[in-house]
Write the structure tokens for this entry.
Amino acid sequence: MLRTKGVLLRRVGRVQEAVEAYAEAIAVFRAVGARRSEARAKNSLAVAMFVLERFEDAIAVGLSSISIDLAIGGRFQIAKTLSNIGHAYAKLGDMPRSLAYMRRAREAHERYDDHDARADTLLCSAGILLEAGDVDAARALSADASALIAVTGSVYDMIHERNVRGLLARARGDIQGAISNASEARQLAESQGLMSYHAYATAIEAASRVDAGEVHTGVLLARTALGAVEASSSEYGIEVRDLCCAALQKGAPASAADAYHRAAAHVRAVAGYIRDARLRALFLERTVVRRILAAEAEGPAAGHDPLRRGEMA
């Protein structure tokens, strides 16, 4: 019950409350020796830490969950946990390790015939490959996920898929395609109360509408998405800020400098959570991070166009 409560709280954006519910569940399971349940709760806690953008902690808790599963001879959610770890390494900027974990996650889904979160693993892999600049590989994995979602009918995965397709469309210069996919994702996420996906979709749509010349609508959407991630935690907090600041820079330049200042402060706060010096350095080298920090340093004249080919976020 406590773990389920945590999942529901996390999905609607009440992440700190979710962390408390997971921590309580872990303590209870450990006290009664329910190792499998403890591993599941730790996996859920790792996801919550990921949403809080405490990526190093998410990795540590995820690895602890896997160690318990292996110790008891279980394979429950190992693929999903490997995927979460790989995604966290991507957020830290360690692409080789991220891609290695994502490959292991996809292999685990196949090896154990584990369908839980399989589409999510494919879509996360696609997003990471897109950031790494491999648009073709990202498109292939996204297509695999789309085929799977057509069978499962998962609305949660469908929203994720539309966001990834929106990013892919932006990468190949298809602005109308980006608007269409992001708008659909935004509306679906709103109907499901999925805060992180809603904010990300809104940011993608905002930047795309400004690019298409729909400046007023794009700026309104950008301010909405910025307000959402500044009020609550999101694993896409940095990406949303990047897209929204770009939209404001083009559509409402008078307010862009302050938005970049707040975005840079957030980036530095996330960097402060990273204890490992190597990972902190890699994080600060992420293209999306460098763009925000450089734009703040350059002042109001700074501008960029994120998620174009050759300049992946």
